[in-house]
Structure formats: C-alpha cells, structure tokens
Specification:
Radius of gyration: 19 Å
CATH class: Alpha Beta
Number of strands: 9
Order of helices and strands: EHEHEHEHEHEEHEHEH
CATH superfamily: NAD(P)-binding Rossmann-like Domain
Helix content: 40-55%
Number of domains: 1
Structural class: alpha/beta
Oligomer: single chain
Strand content: 15-25%
Shape: globular
CATH architecture: 3-Layer(aba) Sandwich
CATH topology: Rossmann fold
C-alpha cells in the first residue's frame, strides 16, 4: 500500500498564516498532504509562506483576508470553495493584539469592537461559512487557537483575554450543534511560544520568569502548536471534540506556589 499522509486530499484554511504559529501550521498541513490555504491580511507575507511550501512540491495557495471585515471573511471562504471544491479543515489562528488593550476600566467601546472583530467575530463568521461545505463533504475539523490568558488572565490585554475565552465557547457550541453531522471542533491553548527572536517579545527578565513557571526543560516553538493542530485535524482525533488541548509546557498545571517553594528549597 502507498504511504498515506494524515491529511491527504483535504483542503485546509489557516488564518494569520503569514508568520509565526500560522505559518508553521500551514507548512505542517501541507506536509501531511493537505492543500494548505495561507490566509492573512499581509498578502505579501502569505505569498512568501505559500511559495516556500510549493517549492517543496507540496500544495499551497495564498489568499488575502482581513478577519475584522465580514465581507472579506465571506470572500475567503467563497474563493477557497470555488478554487478547490470545498473546505475540510479550518484553523482559526489570526489574532490582533492592540498595544492600547489594558485593564478593564481603561478600554473604551471602540477598542472592544476592534479586538472582538478580529479575535472572535471573524473566526465565528469564517466557521459559519466553512461548516456547510464541511458537511457536504462528509465532515470536517475546526481548530481554534486560543491563549493561555483565556484561562489565566493578567493585568492587561482584557479585550484579548475575553475574545480568546470566547473562542472556547464558540468551539464547544460548534462541537455540540454539528457533531452528529461529522463536524469536530476543538481549541488549542498555547503557553509561551518563542518566536525566531524571543527578545523582541520578552525581556531577559521576563524570559527567566516564563522558564521558571514552565514545567518542561525548554519553552515551546510554533512547530509544537502545529503538530497539535495536525493531530486535532486528523482522523487520529476522530473521538476528540468540544475540548481544549493545552500545549503550554505545563504552565497551567502546578499550583502558583510551586516555583516560589522551589526557590526556598534551593536557598535552604
């Protein structure tokens, strides 16, 4: 028998795929045999990612989408269905984090609307467009990329935190409402994922804190999220739906006292 990859013949949309986690997911989807649709507001970046994938002899295409624009979201789904016959997998990864997103009292209505539009309403509308196609093709899988902040909020990024928590609810609702029609829907909850240049995201002091509170020897990379997405999108996870997979190196596992107790033990 030929060696079949886990996603052979599938059409997969990955939003926010011009860089970071999205780019890694798009590449992994193609490596597993899917036609990987690299969707992003940064079309030039998306085209570069798709070009790297196709240079390996794999199937990919770049498509523009602004997840905060409902018409652009609909146009993305329609184009993929027209060009590739349908949609089998949707990875809602696109994200917008405003530098103005602060504590709850500090955020005005305009900021709430802009953050919800990209981080929650856009994914909900794209899911709405994709699900009928998935059902017509015999089923499909949705993977929503949430955030550790949806479970463990901080002093800032309130709009982002609420939107990412909303993805958990959206995912469960889809799983319940369309599961009998062959639709599975799950969330990935990433921990601290290092970029190619982690010091652009974290100061050295912040990196030390993250390493202290992560229970694995090393911090995560975009490829770790990509492999989790492949699992949830494939038939390996055919009995997994309506749940959240924490890919966080154990960041949310221990009591918050554990790192402090360890410091005391080392001093003693």
């Amino acid at each position: 028998m030929p060696n079949m990859s886990r996603l052979d013949g599938k059409v997969a949309i990955v939003t926010g795929a011009a860089s970071g986690i999205g780019a890694a997911v798009a590449a992994a989807m193609a490596q597993e045999g899917a036609v990987s649709i690299v969707a992003d507001i940064n079309l030039e970046g998306a085209e570069a990612v798709a070009a790297k994938i196709t240079a390996k002899g794999l199937a990919s295409a770049a498509v523009y989408v602004d997840m905060g624009d409902s018409e652009a979201v609909t146009a993305l789904a329609e184009k993929v269905i027209e060009d590739h016959g349908g949609i089998d997998i949707l990875v809602n990864n696109a994200v917008y984090v405003s530098p103005e997103d602060g504590p709850a009292v500090a955020n005005d209505a305009a900021l709430w609307h802009s953050q919800m539009a990209v981080n929650l309403i856009g994914p909900a509308l794209l899911s709405r467009c994709a699900i009928p196609s998935m059902i017509a093709r015999g089923g499909g899988a949705l993977v929503h990329i949430s955030s550790n902040s949806s479970l463990r909020p901080t002093d800032v990024r309130t709009c982002y935190t609420v939107a990412k928590a909303g993805l958990l609810g959206l995912s469960r609702a889809i799983a319940v409402q369309y599961g009998k029609q062959g639709i599975r829907s799950n969330c990935i909850v990433p921990g601290s994922i290092l970029s190619a240049d982690p010091h652009r995201t974290f100061s050295p002091e912040m990196l030390d804190v993250v390493r202290t509170y992560t229970m694995t020897p090393e911090l995560g990379a975009a490829e770790d999220i990509a492999q989790a997405a492949i699992y949830l999108a494939s038939s390996d996870a055919k009995y997994v739906t309506g749940t959240e997979l924490r890919v966080d190196g154990g960041l949310t596992a221990p009591s918050s006292l554990v790192p402090e107790f360890r410091k005391i033990a080392r001093r003693g």
